[in-house]
Amino acid sequence: WRAVASSADGERLMAAEFGGRIYVSTDSGATWKAREFDRDWNSVSMSADGLTLGATVHFGQIYLSTDGGETWRVREAGTDRFWTALAISADGARMAAAEYEGSLYFSEATPAPHRVTVHAGAGAFTRAGFATEILAGPPDEVAAPQAVSFQVTAADESLFDELPAIDAAGALTFTPGDRAGQTAVTVVARDDGGIEDGGIDRSAPKTFTVVVLAGPEIEVSGNGEEIPSGAAAPAEANGTDFGDVLEPGDTTVSQTFVIRNTGGDPLSITDLVLEATHAMEFSLKGFDLAVLPVVLGPGEETTFTIDFDPAGPGERVATVRIDSDDADEYPYTFALRGNGVPPGVRATPHAFAENNAPGATVARLDTIGAGSATGFAYTLEAGDGDTDNARFTVAGDELRLAESADFEAKASYSVRVRAADGMRELENPVRLVVTNANEPPRFTPGDDVGVGGGVTAPQTVANWATGIDDGDSTA
How far is CA 244 from each of CA 308, 340, 368, 431, rounded to the nearest angstrom? Predict the structure, then answer.
C-alpha cells in the first residue's frame, strides 16, 4: 500500500496500491471494492464528504473522481510528472499537487455537486444532508415555525425501482432499477405557510442528475442452474449438494461451477475462499489465486472446481465466498454440503410414500465402498437397528414391506442388513423414512334423525358427526 485518505466522518475511505489498484470503502473499511486499474499510484486525497477523490501516478498523470470513486478521468492529460503529494480542499473545490524537485500546482478540482452516480441494481441509496441550508422563509414571516417538504420529480422514472425523495432533514433516497442511463431530477421546496396576500410557498426549482451505471454483475451457476447469492440450502440440481461419498478413501466427488459477468462493465474478482467447519474437506481447483484480481469483461466467464473428500462420517458443510466489485452482491456466498459414509449397505431411495401395497418393494439394496465379482447376497440380521426386521422381507436386492405404511402411525423404519459374497461381509442398520401423502378427511355419521310434521324451523343435532379427522393428523 502506498497511500490512504478518509472523509471527515471516517465513513468513506480510499487506499492506493503501488503497481496495483485504487480501492474504496463506504462503510469505514468493513468492505472494500477495487475501482481504478493497475498503475503506480503514489498519493491520494479526498474531500470532506468523500465524494471528490484524487490520485497521482508516480511518473504519470493526475486522476480525479467526483462520484466517490465510481468513475475516474485524467485531470492532467499528456503531462507526466514525478508527483509526490496531492491535496483536495474540504469542499472539493480546489486541488494542489507537488512535483518532486519541481513546482507546486494549484487547480480547481471541478467537483460535480449536482451529480449522483450509482450502479444498476445496487439496492437502496441514501445520502444524508444532500439538501442543505433548508429555510422556510424569514423567521418573522409567521408566528409559528413553518414546515418544509420537498417535491421531487425525475424526468425518466423508469430508471428507478423507488423514485427519488428528499425528507425534511435533506436526506436523498431512491432505489435504482436494473437499467443503465441518466436522468435529470428536479427539486422544489415547499412550506406550509400558504399563499394568502400574495405569499409564496415554494422555492425556485433546483436540478441534479442521477447517473445509473451498467456496472458489473456476478452470476454463479452449477450444472447450468443459477445459484443465488446467500443460498443456504444446498441442492443436487445445482451441484452444491455432493451427496454420499465414501470416507475416507479413494473416492472424491468433483463439481465445476461457472462465474459469469452479466453486467455492462468489467467484473473484478478479488478473492475466492472456502469457509466454515469442514472447509478443509472441500478443496478448490482450477482457479489461480496467485493471479488475482481476475477481471471478466461483459459476458465473459470463468470456472472453478470443488473436490469433496470427507475425512469422517456424517454431514460435512462449507461456504464458498467470492469477493468482487459487484455493487449489491458483495460478498457472493453459497453453502456446500456432502455426507461422509463408511463402507456398508444402503437402501435406495431411503424415503418412500405411505399407502404402498402390502409386500411392495420400497427400496433396493446395494453396497458403498465395496465391490464384488460375484455379487452380494442380502439378508436381514438380528442386532443393533433391527427394530422393524419382522415387517420386511428381502428378495434378491429388493427390500419389501409386508404391510402398508401409514405415516400417521409410523414415520420411519429401521432394519439391519447383511451383504455377503463368500469372501467378505458388510452389516449395518438401514433407516427408511415414510413420506406423508395428503389423504381424504373422514368422519363417522350418527343415527338417522326424525323430525315431526309441521316443523319448519332449522334444527341442530349436536355431535351427530364423530371421529372427525382431516386424514393427516399425527396426534
Answer: 10, 6, 9, 15
Is the CB of residue 65 less than 8 Å from the CB of residue 14?
Answer: no
Q: Is residue 474 part of a domain?
A: no
306 vs 201, residue with greater confidence: 306
Where a domain ends, among 213, 228, 254?
Answer: 213
pTM of the model: 0.45
Strands 360-368, 332-341: parallel, antiparallel or unpaired by DSSP? unpaired
In a domain, 351, yes or no: yes
**pLDDT tens column, 342-358:** 888 889 888 898 999 99
User: Distance (Å, rounded) from C-alpha 396 to C-alpha 75?
Assistant: 81
Q: Which position has the grid cell 417535491?
A: 151
DSSP bridge pairs for 433: 351, 412
- List, in sequence order, every beta strand (DSSP E) within 354-444: 360-368, 377-380, 392-395, 398-401, 412-420, 425-435, 442-444
Range of the domain at 23: 3-108
Answer for the pair 268, 321: CB distance below 8 angstroms, yes or no: no
Main-chain phi, psi angles of 457, to 5 degrees: -75, 150
